[in-house]
Each structure stands twice: as C-alpha cells, then as structure tokens.
Amino acid sequence: MAIANFIETVWSAALLEPYRSSQFLIPACNHQYEGELASGNTVKVTAITTPSIQNYATSRTLTIDALSDTTQSLVINKEDAISFKVDDVDRIQAAGSFEPVTRDAAKALSENAESNLIVDLKANGTSAGTGAITTPAHAYAAAVAIRTAMVKAKVPSSDRFLAVSPEFAALLLGEGSKLTSFDPVGDGPVRNGVIGNLLGFTVIEHPLLTHTSSRPAAIGMHGPSVGFVGQIEKVEAGRMELAFADFVRVLNVYGSKVLRATSVQTYLPAS
Question: What's this model's pTM, rounded to 2 decimal places?
Fold first, then answer.
C-alpha cells in the first residue's frame, strides 16, 4: 500500500534546505520573533520611547521621564500551498532520493515569499528618490541618495543591504564600477545574489525586484528593522484518485513587517 510509512519530518527537512538556499533577502531580516506560529497569529513588537538627555551639570537635579511604549503588529497572514505528484512516496523514502522531487517545489515557495517581502518593503518603506536611472552615474547617485537618507534617519551602519533589480545591477557593474568585492565572514547570512559592497551596503541583485517598464530600481534596508516570521508548517501525503500515484502537499505560513519605515529606503523611478 502506498504512503504507508510517510515521514513528515523527513520530507520537511528535504524541502527546507532548497527553500532556504533559494532565498535572497529573507535571511537578512530580523527573525527574533519566530517561535511557535500558525496562520492568523499576530506577533506584538513593542518599542520603548527614548529618555531625554538632561543637563545635570547645570541643574544638579533630575526629572524622571515617564516612558511610553508603542506596539506594532507583525501579522502572519500569508499562506502559500503547493501540491505535486509523486509516483511512489514509500519507494522514494526508501531510496532517500528526495532532492529531485522537492527542489522545484521549495524554490517556488521561496520565490513567492520573497516576492511578498519585496511588496512589503516597497509599500512600507520611505522614498529616497524617484529620478530617472539610465546611466552608471545615475545608479551610483541613487545608491548615494539611499545611503544619505539612512544616515539622516540615524539608521545603524551595520547590517545594511541594497537590493537592486537586474537593470540597476547592470548599470552598477558597468565600466568604472565602484563596487568592491564581497568577502563573506564565517557563515554570513546572505549568499544569493551578492555582487559586491558599495557605500557600506552589501549589494544583492534580486531577480524578483521588478519595476514599471523594467526601469532600474533599488531598495536599501537595515536587516534588523524588517521582521520576518515563517515556517513550512505542514507536509502531507495522500493517494491520488485518478492516477496510480501519490501526492505531496506543502503549506508555507509567514508574515513580514517593516518595523521602522526610515530604515527601508526605496528608489523607484516614476513610470
């Protein structure tokens, strides 16, 4: 009998490796709110106001500030499902040959999650400019504008990433490129798409970062300021009704949140 010994954890592990290895920006996000999660969950992210600085040298007294907090909701409201045909689940499990039947499924789930993250960054970040980008000089100027906006917003200089569309990357990589080589340290959080360092950013060419009429576009982000919560929640198998084969279906649940709008700076030229 087919799927008599289906092992969910084994298939989940087989999906997880190609799912993660297909990601570009998700690894750079803040994952500290991940834990027990399910569709419909809401993670409350609380920030405390900064105390005021007092001139003690002059007053010799202190005023006790009453701190307040602000709460943001990171809603886990994305559910991506996929189902694919497998000739014999038990036989594949016995052979341990999961990679051929899980790679494309995991890649599709990863791409959809990345696409939704980009939509969130575009919608909830802050615009650093919309001018036309047609030359390498324009592309560099756009990167400078993003950097300047982040510096003015007092965004930490560490963990900065610059996601660029293929059209933007082509200009950055042109003659006279100011990109420097990417030299990862240890097990760096980002591998896919990295084309170099520029102005304190790790530059990531993202194939899913598209813009109107394929115009060059870029998004600067401070990784810890973008929350991402997600997991492959369910992996199930069953017997197909109209074929002598099994099916495997997968549910990926996730959500993202721009926790500080000025820590995500976009440069999306007008159409």
Answer: 0.86
